[in-house]
Design a protein that fits this description.
The chain is an alpha/beta fold and about 120 residues long. The chain has one helix at about 1-20; strands at about 25-35, 40-45, 55-60, 65, 80-90, 95-100. The protein has a 5-stranded mixed beta barrel. The termini are far apart. The radius of gyration is 24 Å and the shape is elongated. Residues about 15-20 have low confidence and may be disordered. The protein has a domain at about 20-100: Copper binding periplasmic protein CusF (OB fold (Dihydrolipoamide Acetyltransferase, E2P), Beta Barrel). The chain is about 15% helix and about 40% strand.
Length: about 120
């Protein structure tokens, strides 16, 4: 009987601990703003449900990695970014594990052809 109680207690503890586990997702869109004091970034993305733009706030930590920029302060409004984030189940907030700034698309350059002369 004691063995069964021990097994049940372990299963219950595992279940309770699992409830606090983080959920991960990728959030991509245009930068709206950054807040260096609060260590957050806000980006706008299209809602898959409504098709309208929605803002998503994501916290950054000292362990957040960056690609295409060095730090949160390097991000500007309008930048295209992709954020790997984990959801804190207790607070329902998103915490960035990595932030990637998309490279600016190459601009097309045109060169004028030299005039030709016919003789």
């Amino acid at each position: 009987m004691k063995k069964m109680q021990l097994v049940m207690a372990v299963l219950l503890a595992t279940f309770v601990l699992y409830q606090g586990a983080a959920y991960a997702k990728t959030v991509s869109g245009k930068m709206v703003s950054t807040d260096a004091l609060a260590n957050t970034l806000t980006l706008s993305q299209k809602s898959v449900v409504t098709g309208t733009d929605e803002n998503v706030a994501v916290s950054v930590k000292a362990t957040t990695t960056y690609s295409g920029v060095s730090a949160l302060a390097d991000l500007k409004a309008g930048d295209e970014v992709s954020v790997e984030a984990e959801q804190d189940a207790a607070t329902n907030s998103w915490i960035a594990t990595s932030v990637t700034k998309a490279e600016a698309p190459a601009t097309a350059t045109t060169t004028a052809a030299a005039p030709t002369t016919v003789q």
